[in-house]
Amino acid sequence: EEIPVQLAARKAQYFNAFTENYVIVGADTIVTFKDQVLGKPKNEAEAHAYLSMLSGQTHRVISGCSIISAGQSSDFIDITEVKFKELGRQAIEHYIKHYQPFDKAGAYAIQEWIGLIGVEWIKGSYVNVVGLPVHKVYEELLKLG
Fold first, then answer.
1. How confident is the model at residue 55 (pLDDT cuts 50, 70, 90)?
2. CB–CB of 103/34 below 8 Å?
């Protein structure tokens, strides 16, 4: 749970060094399954392995955010549980061939075809799984004024 918020804070701090009077939002999202972090797959074999691992299982999507505004900062996480249906070999291969799983943590994007046919349920925020818990960012921005 600490990894994405640390990465988000580094991103926000990096850009904050070059700007003044701006609101900086850094964010990073990871997928975890049984205490294993599933990053962005390096190749088709790794994407296939990730999706096969997630098939029929529940995993967590954890987004870390860091907001810097007028000398104030706020770091937070949002966690969503996602349960995939059983994904057949053909469905996994179709997704890998026709979509770009290589720039996505866990090798999938919930808003794409695989999310439409493969997700059984989610517990938590859909937009968090997409990549940014906008509702929480908004709440934190209100707190920072």
1. very high
2. no
The highest-level CATH class for domain 2-144 is alpha beta
Q: Which amino acid is at 17?
A: A
Q: How is the chain split into domains, by residue range?
A: 2-144
Amino acid occupying residue 53: M
Q: Residues 28, 35, 75, 103: which is the catalytic one?
A: 28
Q: State the SS3 of 93-119.
A: HHHHHHCCHHHCHHHCCCCCHHHHHHE
Whole-angstrom distance, CA of residue 133 vs CA of residue 78: 7
**35 annotated active-site:** no
Cα distance between residue 117 and residue 124, in whole Å: 19
Q: What is the pTM of this model?
A: 0.91
41 vs 102: CA distance, rounded Å: 5
pLDDT digits (tens, 9 = 90+) for 63-90: 999 999 988 999 999 999 999 999 999 9
